[in-house]
Design goal:
four-stranded mixed sheet, 13 helices, Aspartate Aminotransferase, domain 1, single chain, alpha/beta, binds pyridoxal-5'-phosphate, about 35% helix, Aspartate Aminotransferase, domain 2
């Protein structure tokens, strides 16, 4: 038998039977040349679409010039990326730390906040997902991920997402930090109740707690604003991003307020690959594309169109319990396990994501065209009918 990836890998990922060979924009082709509409978006990484020409050009130019440049020396590509990040950063988040993934950007945020606040206690949310390294895992809610790896960080309290009075009750002398995804991604695109995000900000300001926004999934235009916090005119003290910022080149960015950044001493945090020239050239081209193609507005327009169509599907298909989300961060909640729906999607040329057992999560590239959305909806309509037939649900 010819070995496939699974013969070598540790069995850690839920895998789909698709061998992806190439991709462009919001379209993927497998090794047999079959075409798929990509509502997975590489788990939200392909923000500006796959294989963007300007990103490829920038990386290629950079690779022919310089591929390795540690943070201990200076580099013009890095300066350019820093300036572009600074130009889109929320107000006052003027300092930047580079890393290589979402979880690492969270690790940095937790260390900066602990040092600044001089307190180990952190409040995180039910359903919050922040990654799987030890620090990030400590503030990730799902016990399925945490239970085999104790002891984790001490002093973490979890409170219900959306419930301000529980947050207030949990604050005591030990707490220095609150960490929040403005919209919870991994848990199934859970929207905050009206006024919640702003109220969390106000409480953190009043109680002098550092507020960290994890915008790893929500950031960079995904929700129809550059940052999800802007949907509620709210900015954090520290903000983490990763996923699409360098269009697939592994990158984490932690934005930090100057007063917090100042508490860190030389050598107290670092990473060998941080701010490498390839990342920086890809990151600059990504930001340029988001701005040049006005992808933030596009995400809002296309997302509104997508959601309207999903709501129509809900009216037609009793199997759908809920439709939610904003911009190009959308979810369909089913009454049943969605595995067969996802597999039917693959058979019919549509890639979608799990969010737990019953929630279909959609994180398409922001460049997806409305015609592709319409085609995706047609496929969903067909495969939802198939599922209803299988489960004997009448519509
Ligand atoms: C909100 C959020 N935080 C953190 C992470 C972890 O990022 P990474 O997988 O790059 O470590 C993710 C990944 O999905 C995420 O969605």
């Amino acid at each position: 038998m010819i070995p496939n990836e699974d013969s070598f890998l540790i069995n850690l990922y839920q895998r789909f039977p698709v061998t992806v060979e190439r991709a462009q924009g919001a379209t993927i082709w497998d090794a047999d040349g079959k075409e798929y509409i990509d509502c997975m978006g590489g788990y939200g990484v392909a923000i500006i679409g796959h294989c963007n020409k300007d990103v490829i050009k920038a990386i290629t130019l950079q690779m022919n010039k310089l591929m390795v440049c540690h943070m201990s020396t200076y580099n013009d590509s890095r300066l350019q990326f820093l300036s572009k990040l600074n130009s889109i950063a929320p107000e006052n988040l003027s300092r930047i730390f580079f890393s290589n993934s979402g979880a690492e950007s969270i690790e940095a945020a937790l260390k900066f906040s602990r040092k600044f606040s001089q307190k180990g206690g952190i409040i995180s949310m039910y359903g919050g997902y922040h990654g799987k390294t030890f620090g990030a895992l400590s503030v990730t809610y799902n016990s399925k991920y945490r239970k085999s790896f104790n002891p984790l960080l001490e002093g973490i309290k979890f409170v219900p997402f959306g419930d301000i009075s529980s947050l207030i009750d949990a604050i005591d002398e030990s707490i220095g930090t609150v960490i929040l995804e403005p919209i919870q991604g991994e848990s199934g695109i859970i929207m905050p109740p009206d006024g919640y995000v702003k109220a969390v900000r106000e409480i953190c300001t009043e109680k002098k707690l550092v507020l960290i926004f994890d915008e790893i999934q929500t950031g960079l235009g995904r929700t129809g604003k550059m940052w999800a916090g802007q949907n509620w005119t709210t900015a954090p003290d520290i903000m983490c991003i990763a996923k699409g910022i360098a269009s697939g080149i592994p990158t984490g960015v932690t934005f930090v307020k100057d007063e917090i950044a100042k508490c860190m001493n030389l050598g107290e945090h670092s990473s060998t690959f941080a701010g490498n020239p390839i990342t920086c050239s890809a990151g600059s081209a990504t930001i340029d594309t988001i701005i040049k193609e006005d992808l933030v507005t596009k995400a809002s327009d296309t997302g509104t169109y997508f959601k309207k169509n999903l709501i129509e599907l809900k009216e037609k298909h009793p199997i759908i319990r809920d439709v939610r989300g904003m911009g190009m961060m959308l979810a369909l909640e089913s009454r049943f396990d969605i595995r067969d729906i996802l597999m039917d999607g693959i058979r019919n040329g549509l890639l979608m994501l799990y969010s737990g057992r019953t929630i279909i999560r959609l994180l398409p590239p922001l460049v997806m065209k409305k015609e592709q959305v319409s085609r995706a909806i047609e496929i969903m309509d067909k495969i939802l009918s198939l599922e209803e037939k299988r489960r004997n649900v009448k519509n």
